[in-house]
Design a protein that fits this description.
Blueprint lengths: L2 E8 L2 H32 L5 H14 L9 H24 L16 E4 L6 E3 L9 E5 L3 E6 L7 E10 L2 E9 L12 E6 L3 E5 L4 E3 L3 H17 L6 H35 L2 E5 L3 H4 L14 H14 L1 H15 L2 E5 L24 E3 L6 E3 H22 L1
Length: about 400
Amino acid sequence: MRRSLKFLLRPTRHQEIALTACLEDHRQLYNAALEHRRTAYAKAGVSVRYGDQSAELKHIRGDDTGGQGRWSFSSQQATLRRLDKAFRAFFARVKAGRAPGFPRFKGRGWFDTVEWPKDGDGCRWDSQPEHPSATYVRLQGVGHVRVHRHRPVRGRVKTIAVKRESSRWYVVLSCDEVPVGPLPATGAVAGIDMGVASLVTTSDGVQVANPRHLAATAGRLADAQRDLAGKRRGSRRRRKAVARVAALHGKVRRQRLDHAHKAANVLVGAYDVIVHEDLRITNMTRSASGTIEAPGRNVAQKSGLNRSILDAGWGVFLTILSHKAESAGRKLIAVNPAGTSRTCSRCAHVAKENRLTQAEFRCVSCGHAAHADVNAAVNILRAGLALRQAAEAA
């Protein structure tokens, strides 16, 4: 199987300057290639493809040996393929009748990754294997950069990417042929209900807390954004204010990821089969503001709910859970969540009045009382097991 691993880089000051220059030159290459395509089609009706632009790279590098010529040819091809992918996605959306969204030029804050498509071609993972304690990655034009490798790398390193997040630099490895290590069977199954009060509630009654990382940082974020609003565009002070806001958001993102990994590890270690809701988070967090002609209702309440859902990080958690379940040989089943919170898990009676409050469930038919999230998780588990049984019988 394939896995991606992300490690913090520890560049020296000179290496950080070189990494910044590498990222900037790749951004300019991306924008120049986009302008080339736009101009060729607007002036002559000619569609420029990836192959045409890749063939011109040799001349570009030869004319700019101190700039574009410093970096790996393969990494520059990967940047051009990234643009080509954006155009292919654009035409696919046009063909499907969706809002197309033409590829845009990348500003300094919107281009943060450079990729090397093959380990050994302009880059080398573990470039100093004889070093007794540290790990290094070699990048053409940058040198041997120290890596904070916090866990072993298994499988064969296929691609290497460098990503900037605020003031931090990371290396991202894509590894093939990663050995799968199935966990021993437990014989246990569980349904999980996603929530805001608790991130996860299982059908066994176990609740995983929702730390609300964004809410905890809201005060400092508000101060930082007010400070940013008062800075003049293009000034050095504004750049520092932007960096402060980005650093706070980055910390929240890392906290959310860390909690999601730990919660997913617990579930994968405890259950052989995990059933979850097939949530459409984009639809659930759509704004209720409406239009001028037809304004929405309860806009403030819906905005608060949307913020709480996004702060909980349901999508991040379910993605991580899926990857860990696959790696551990566990079965993950997604079911339609419609009606699970209003259905009695004992008698299957469905009524809006069954759910008295956010936390309390009492069936108006049979009188069954339970925590609302536990009741929903039991219904989710039952639906998932029915789907598995139907699939096995087919």
